[in-house]
Amino acid sequence: MLGEQKICFSGVQPSGNLTIGNYLGAIRNFATFSEAYKCFYCVVDQHAITVRQTPADLRRRTYETLALYMACGLDPEKNTLYVQSHVPAHAELSWILNCYTMFGELSRMTQFKDKSSKHADNVNAGLFTYPVLMASDILLYQTDVVPVGIDQKQHVELCRNIAERFNQVFPDTFTVPEPIIPQNGKKIMSLADPTKKMSKSDENQNAIVYILDDRDTIIRKFRRAVTDSDTAVRFAEGKDGINNLMTIYSCFTGKNMDEIEREFAGKGYGDFKLAVGEVTADALAPVQARYKELLADKAGLEAQMKRGAEEAAYYARKTLSKVQKKLGFVQIR
Ligand code: TRP
């Protein structure tokens, strides 16, 4: 809490191009929190380096991610939008919280297990302690709610455990946050293998629809989406491909599964896939137009980064100083 206002925090990594899974599962919902909460939305560049990045790409994507936040409807007047590495308190609190996080807890994180098998040649300590930096992001702002995709729920739960553990030793230090998982579009699956999450790091480009894909590309990718040998547009067990397309259609149109089944009764998969492609392209068109405008003004984005970082640092410092004092670090300011 900040005075009377509840706090919302979330982050997006500037690694890879963002997909409709990121959009529907996270970013699109961010704007809905601005009314009721004080919101901090962070481009988490420090998380991104847990896997190897090309520096020029990381830099470019940091600008792009900020522009995309704004293009998706996050007003910088109403939200604090900033870049993680511009606020050193994140890394400082992270070291402290490393000492309040157990090796066993981190070993149980499913994302660590996945990523360490995927990057077996680079299982670095940062990959392992990634959730501690994420907990620091959240706890620095005395966050009440964390809107995230379902795949990040385990990390927010770990964050709660760390906060509770710390509070037990040093009462009233951190607000214990709640994860908020969007009701609809919880998890958007790969178009090529609908049993797997749509991931921006997938090698198969046909598996992924990017927020910035053009209309023809979007329609082509949906046309090629893997479905099943049935013909009816029905939401049912074992129809992972169709279920996923129905979920996407539902997210973009607001229609529920019954309405979608009725709309496509008697029509084939071809018609349905085209319709999913069209609603997706229509919904993304204004986001893409605004994004291009924003990205063309690099100085404007930098000014925003600076303003966001100053605002964030003010709140982050308050929590960090409190923690340092409680721990017994000598304060010389
Ligand atoms: N780990 C998150 C992801 O990969 C990104 C993230 C970093 C985050 N810090 C956060 C999300 C804090 C919510 C809150 O999607």
Describe what you observe in this structure.
The strands form two sheets. The protein has a three-stranded parallel β-sheet. The chain has helices at residues 20-33, 45-48, 55-71, 89-98, 103-107, 110-118, 125-140, 153-169, 215-223, 240-253, 257-263, 269-295, 298-327, and strands spanning 6-12, 37-43, 79-83, 145-147, 178-180. The chain is 54% helix and 8% strand. Helix 1 (20-33) links the parallel strand 1 (6-12) and strand 2 (37-43). The protein is mostly helical and 333 residues long. Helix 4 crosses helix 7 (125-140), helix 4 runs parallel beside helix 13 (298-327) and helix 10 (240-253) crosses helix 12 (269-295). The protein has two domains: 7-181 and 298-327, Rossmann fold; 205-292, Tyrosyl-Transfer RNA Synthetase (Orthogonal Bundle). The chain contains 13 helices and five strands. The site of tryptophan (TRP) has 13 residues, from strand 1 and helix 7.
